Amino acid sequence: MSVRIDGEKSDEVPERSRVVRRILRGPRPEAVPTLIARACTLVGVLDIAAGVFPRFRHSRMHRMAEVLPGSFGPFAAALSLSAGVLLLLLAHGLRRRKRRAWRAAVLLLPAGAVSEYVYRHSLVGVLIAVALLVPLLRHRGEFAALPDPRSRWRALANFILMGAGSVGLGLVIVSVHSHRMVGDPSLSDRLEHVLYGLFGFEGPVDYTGNTSWTVGFSLGALGLITAITTIYLAFRPEHPAAQLTEEDEERLRALLDKHGSRDSLGHFALRRDKAVVFSPSGKAAVTYRVVSGVMLASGDPIGDVEAWPGAIERFMDEARAHSWTPAVVGCSETGGEVWTRETGLDALELGDEAVVDVKDFSLSGRAMRNVRQMVKRIERAGYETRVRRIRDLGEGELERIRRAAEDWRGTDTERGFSMALGRVGDPADGDCLIATAHKADAEAGPYGDLKAVLHFVPWGTDGASLDLMRRDRSADPGMNELLIVAALQAAPKFGIEHVSLNFAMFRSALARGEKIGAGPVLRAWRGLLVFLSRWFQIESLYKFNAKFQPRWEPRFMVYASTRDLPRIGFAVMQAEGFVNLALPRVLRRTSRAPRPCAHGVAERGVRTPSRA
């Protein structure tokens, strides 16, 4: 809903209209799909149990099945096992209201019910399947979510995971009939039998009676499911993740030109692996990326604050259409208030951003003694610094800096999402600052006298935000401190009044936990953070930032439900590059062809880790 002010469309939604709209929508439609998904999981487990642990009861149908040619038992066991495995795979899609998962479940449930009755003669199993089928049909309108971004590389992951699961379940199937085994086959024999059976061949293990047929058909069914699902994922149409188009980037840059000084993370919205939704008037936008079913936005919305509600509404509509879990990481206090007010989501403080006011920065005083001594020592060792705009560098020097930044990266995986631009030296980013450290008398390396690089993105017209820090591992310690001091001292000639440094997660807990009088809970929480700092640089980033005597600006995460926090946290770690589920570099496809930037020069695809 929108109103007009002075003849111009606005995205500010009156509170009364917003409340009425929420009432008309009714409660969030998550309870029914979740319950059906859980019931689907239960039925899948029962179907698998029916195929793996058969318990025939004496009945006329059983006695008839024993004398009929071929017997129904082995086929029904395989069908029950197949239906159970597929229902387990579909449960996650049903919980997320996916239409294709609903269609497949509607077909599989009757098949599972038939196999339950034919193989086990279980009326209870049939009734459970029917009891789940009825609400599926009744609430079919709830399952209308669109597909997720996907690629054919998921086929390989499916083959590996399904293959491992089939081998494990196959060992259970082979071993559960131990009383009918001929002899005493070893574990290696049973594993060999499973591997042969998955491909439809007879293995070394033999059974008395018709058990060999039952085991053989069950193993063959597992192998067939693995093959079918892998082939389906390999040949289904791709739905690649949305990317920032040239038109989107131009519109975002126009918004940043007007409102970029409001948020230090605004320029990071120009990462080209993000997608964007605009408000109806085009005065505000939210950029995001979908990671493991989480629609993850970062920082505050871009643009006019009065137009934020319209952009947030579009963001939530997109999340509902695909049944993605909405989340925001790294928003400011103002942004968190708007997000929670407009959506009913909750907010959690993540940490603090270190911001240095240039006019108040000085190396004098006892508090700056360590930084001052380190900088003087490095300068005496023969290092010099240069601070320039990207547009003032030649292409040859830019290329050298790009290659050095790539080579000096400390991890195989690129890191950064919420506070990283993802490129260095693009002509469209000519206002970015770059600080470099050089040592003229050093032994010439592949990058000449270059020893360290810091890259800053614009924060409006009078600010800068630290993007990345890279240094030669053979250089003297303190390169980052040297370049930050150089950038702060050179800031006035570029018209820069404040500089945003690294983000320190859980800074307040670390700071309060080490003070006298801290309680046992706070000390324990700080101890856990210090332990986790061995892998995630939590304490080291806080202490590094604190050297420069910054002011601390809190940053928040916005989320829908407490039960979503583990999933959102995992998605954030994937987006930031701390958890990598991608294929090894040698197996990855080459990236898509670089698209021209705003100035006609192709994007080089240099991606950078987060600030530290």
Automatic annotation (TrEMBL):
InterPro entries: LPG_synthase_C, PG_lysyltransferase, tRNA-synt_2_TM. Keywords: Cell membrane, Membrane, Transmembrane, Transmembrane helix. The keyword Transmembrane applies. It is a multi-pass membrane protein. Residues 253-559 form the Phosphatidylglycerol lysyltransferase C-terminal domain. Residues 30-231 form the Lysyl-tRNA synthetase N-terminal transmembrane region domain. The chain crosses the membrane at residues 35-54, 75-94, 117-136, 156-176, 213-235. It is found in: Cell membrane. Signal peptide: none annotated. Its main location: membrane. This is Phosphatidylglycerol lysyltransferase domain-containing protein. It comes from Streptomyces cynarae.
